[in-house]
Amino acid sequence: MDVNPTNLRTAGVAFKKTYMLGFASHTTLWARIATKVNSTTSSNEYGWLGDFPQVREWIGEREYRSIAQHDYTIKNRKFESTVTVKREHFEDDNLGIIGPIMQGMGESVARHPDELLFEVLELGYIQNCFDGQPFFDGDHPVKNDDGSERSVANYYPGNKPHWYLLDTSRALKPLIRQVRKEPEFVSKTDVIPTVPIIDSCFFVSLWCYL
Questions:
Q1: Which of 12, 27, 62, 97 has its CA 20 to 30 A from that of 135?
Q2: Rounded distance, CA 21 to CA 115, Å?
Q3: pTM of this prediction?
Q4: For the chain, how are helix, strand and coil distributed in percent, rounded to 5?
Q5: Which of 107, 130, 84, 137 is nearest to 28 (CA)?
Q6: In angstroms, rounded to a whole number, what is the distance separating the alpha carbons of residues 5 and 8?
Q7: What φ, ψ does residue 194 adopt, rounded to 5°?
Q8: 88 phi, psi to nearest 5 deg
């Protein structure tokens, strides 16, 4: 096969199709336990996480509650996956061996948010959330309806393997997937040595909510 712009474009289209087949083959799990938040800057602030007022019986004057503020910011992280195709594969018309690689990369990219989310659950014992304490902790401060404060535990120590009970029925799920850019398949070529480069680049960051 001649290495020319037309053949390179054709190969790029075929690679993308195979990549998308792999991407679509994975059934993601992150949406079950995380709320997606779109990001348009390098980081997002979540100072409002500290207070979700409950409904109260309306007796007397209306009570106006201010949203508690916490200094909590999540920075976006950048990820990529790049595959190079040798010039000889084009010249020998041997691109068939690249298909499984592209499909596998699509599967890997689709699975990556799940891996991050379940990894952050394990880090929840040492990684602080919006109130400055580890996500899993024995004395999280929570406000009562009357404004007083009490301690709430969402972690019980033990020697057995960890298991998690999550309330995913609410609009705001226990975790957030913060996304600045969705995974994107990009084909690039370099005249010398003329190889297409597949670049999947996306941002993922997480916070934890009690």
A1: 27
A2: 20
A3: 0.72
A4: 30, 25, 45
A5: 107
A6: 5
A7: 60, 70
A8: -60, -30
Length of the chain: 210
DSSP SS3 for 55? coil
Helix, strand or coil, per DSSP, at residue 90: helix
Identity of the amino acid at 91: E
Rounded to whole angstroms, the Cα distance separating 108 from 10 reads 24
> Which tokens in the block code for residue 52?
């979700």
pLDDT per position as a tens digit, 98-120: 889 889 999 999 999 999 988 88
Phi and psi at residue 174, to the nearest 5°: -60, -30
Quote the Cα angle for 172-175-177, to 5°: 100
Strands 205-208 and 149-152 come out as unpaired
Maximum separation of any 2 CA atoms in the chain, in Å: 83
Q: Kind and range of the H or E element at 91?
A: helix 87-91
Q: How far apart are the first and last CA of the chain?
A: 58
**Residue for token digits 């020998």?**
92
Residue 39 DSSP class: -
Closest CA to 183 of 120, 73, 118, 105: 105
The amino acid that residue 123 corresponds to is L
CA distance 123 to 136: 9
Task: Give dist(CA 136, CA 128) in Å, integer.
Answer: 9
